[in-house]
Amino acid sequence: MKKILQTDIVAQQGINLIESVCLKMGFLWHPTGLEAGIDGYIELRNATTGEVTNCIVQVQSKATEQPFEADNGTTFEYRCSERDLAYWLAGNAPVILIRSRPKTNEAYWASVKDRFQDLAARKNRKIIFDKVADRFDENAKICLERLAAPADSGLYLGTKPKQETVYSNVLQLAPLPEHYYVARTDYRTRPEVFAALREVTTNVRGEWILGDRMIGSFHDLSARPWTEVCDGGTVEELDTEEWAQTGDPARQRDFVQLLNACLREKLFPKGIKYSKEHNFYYFRAPKDLSDREYAYQSRENRTDRWVFKGYPKKSDPSKMSYYRHSAFEGRFIRYGAEWYLQVTPDYHFTRDGERTSYYAADLLSGIKRLENNQAVHGQVVMWANVLTERSLFDVAPQFLDFLAPVQFQLEVGLDDKTWLKREETEKRTALEAPAPDERQQVLEL
Predict the structure, then answer these.
(1) Which residues fall within 8 angstroms of residue 34, CB to CB, at 6 or more apart?
(2) For the segment 41-58, what is each residue's pLDDT rounded down to a tens digit?
(3) Prediction pTM value
(4) Fewest Cβ atoms nearer than 10 Å: which of 126, 318, 372, 407?
């Protein structure tokens, strides 16, 4: 059931007390109706003629049932939040803070901009109220008249406070295996090692690195089939955490190389291939070149996206102009003691599902111009699902797993509908479309 808390009741009682005092002064009270750092504004009125002046004072009400802070009978204190204070000081309109205790019919006021003129006061964020001089009653009328902004001065209001969640494109690595293994080997190249492993097993895994006649892996190299490609008597078990935190650039490159090997192995069974030429991962084309959708959980609901799709020629719809593959560039980075995968969405364009399209650069440039932030974010969410999901049929060892994308809560934000530039109707419609899949057809050359 919907609830109205006692704090809500007290807050409204504080507003009612302010309105009552304003009416006794002969002024008008205009509530904002929504809590946005300002609860309403007082509009001055000529008591003799009845004319309203369009001179205003913005008001923030802070009501309480509890005793005032540091109340010694003559003064008391109130400490403003940094977020509220920044908002009150942002515009050129006068702002007053009214601290009240409705049950005792007490209200006290302070001009925020006058109290926080110097940096020391701003840093402290504290207002000391005098219970006699700062009483908010009919005697405060003259002070408010001096304070109010005149109608011809122009009015600038600060940006409305808005908390915002920032969704990043970095996924933190889940805990890695506690140990890794190194051993000597006579093999020089990865193809040679793969060929040797295929002679003894059909389940050939690629989570290993090779260099300087040494092989390193999260697999236990002292067990088969690894003993077929390395000297079992030289196997060493080492601490992964020490390697992950190394400051040696060469060892760090080796560590990232192993992470990339694990990532390739993790994604390949999901139909995702690594392109050494373009340095990104992309959805492979089905054997019959049929369109492929990927279903995933977005921030709000279940959705799907074309991850491989063909686009016919306009001149001859029976022939394909190009195929588009969803792709991403993955880069391992370390912040502090934690490792992350940075995901940068991309596209791969082919002419037959394998060979890069002659017009790939133009097609990519075109779709990037059309995509807005929401579309890019949707791709990051999709790739995050790909990287974090795990099926009941995943029986192979998973050395590399990821946590959900990192999110940040900011105390400031922007109202996109207010600040975004208004584009011409046709371009705005294209930019605000939910997904770029069908729009790609307009980019065909």
Answers:
(1) none
(2) 898 888 788 888 778 899
(3) 0.63
(4) 318
